[in-house]
């Protein structure tokens, strides 16, 4: 006998399922393998949580986010990544190699699983050294000592990881207090801090920006110390669609006091929620409007030219 249920009961049931799904915690894999340089905020002391992990634990409790931390690239597979809504990368170097931190690298199949995860609708957020990962024309673990090849834009010929992320790290100068302007205060987590952030940080210089970026922060280079910043303003944080997925990046996050700050934690939570489809935002490209000279790269220093 075919059972019939009242239409109102069916609707209530569907609404209950929708509410239950949206109420589930956001599941984030915090991946911190460093085949290149390993930053202090992600170092684990005898297996104890790193500085950034401790911050994320508290952030997760406030924002209903569950973080799983790993440095083991060998785990990457479609089945493993399917456990998560968003991948949060604070990584460096060629992640397919063991490299500096001696943790297993991502296999060829695992790297394909990563790209498929994002292209098929997963979220991806990169922090700081994530843009120092999978450089165009660089393979084999740590950083190339000269890196002259970084001082050009490759466009369509850039490494697939660079194109997914939306940009690539070149170099950084001395840590200093500088200004990053907030170019989209309506993006989740970027409101409530005025039009600019004046912060002491290790400021990355970046290039090979994908044309579809929704730029969220712009580095204001005027008056900055060091030749690495002898260039026009350029994007420092952004969001972009990638296939069916969502990608965001913030070059900040080197220093412990930056991780401690309300603005950084707010921006990070907002990017994770947007990437995980828990928040919406206008991601209409604005690269040419807010950083029209973004493609101009600083000249390489003498030690790189040698």
From TrEMBL:
Annotated SUPFAM superfamilies: Class I glutamine amidotransferase-like
Keywords noted in UniProt: Signal
ThuA-like domain residues: 27-275
Signal peptide: 1-23
PANTHER family recorded: GALACTOSE-BINDING DOMAIN-LIKE SUPERFAMILY PROTEIN (PTHR40469:SF2), SECRETED GLYCOSYL HYDROLASE (PTHR40469)
Protein name: ThuA domain-containing protein
């Amino acid at each position: 006998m075919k059972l019939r249920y009242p239409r109102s009961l069916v609707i209530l049931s569907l609404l209950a399922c929708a509410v239950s799904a949206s109420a589930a915690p956001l599941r984030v894999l915090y991946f911190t393998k460093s085949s290149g340089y390993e930053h202090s905020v992600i170092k684990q002391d005898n297996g104890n949580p790193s500085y950034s992990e401790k911050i994320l634990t508290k952030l997760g409790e406030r924002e209903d986010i569950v973080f799983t931390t790993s440095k083991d690239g060998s785990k990457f597979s479609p089945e493993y990544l399917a456990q998560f809504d968003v991948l949060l990368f604070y990584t460096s170097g060629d992640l397919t190699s063991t490299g500096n931190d001696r943790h297993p690298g991502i296999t060829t199949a695992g790297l394909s699983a990563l790209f498929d995860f994002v292209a098929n609708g997963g979220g991806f957020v990169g922090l700081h050294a994530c843009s120092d990962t999978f450089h165009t024309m660089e393979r084999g673990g740590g950083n190339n000592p000269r890196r002259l090849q970084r001082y050009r834009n490759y466009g369509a010929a850039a490494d697939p990881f660079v194109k997914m992320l939306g940009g690539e790290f070149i170099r950084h100068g001395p840590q200093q207090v500088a200004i990053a302007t907030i170019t989209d205060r309506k993006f989740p987590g970027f409101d409530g801090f005025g039009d600019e952030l004046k912060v002491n940080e290790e400021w990355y210089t970046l290039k090979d920006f994908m044309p579809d970026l929704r730029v969220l922060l712009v580095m204001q280079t005027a008056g900055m110390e060091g030749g690495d910043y002898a260039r026009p303003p350029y994007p420092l944080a952004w969001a972009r669609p990638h296939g069916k997925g969502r990608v965001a990046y913030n070059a900040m996050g080197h220093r412990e006091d930056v991780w401690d700050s309300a603005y950084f934690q707010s921006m990070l939570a907002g990017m994770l929620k947007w990437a995980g489809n828990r928040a919406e935002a206008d991601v209409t490209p604005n690269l040419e409007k807010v950083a029209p000279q973004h493609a101009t790269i600083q000249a390489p220093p003498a030690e790189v030219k040698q």
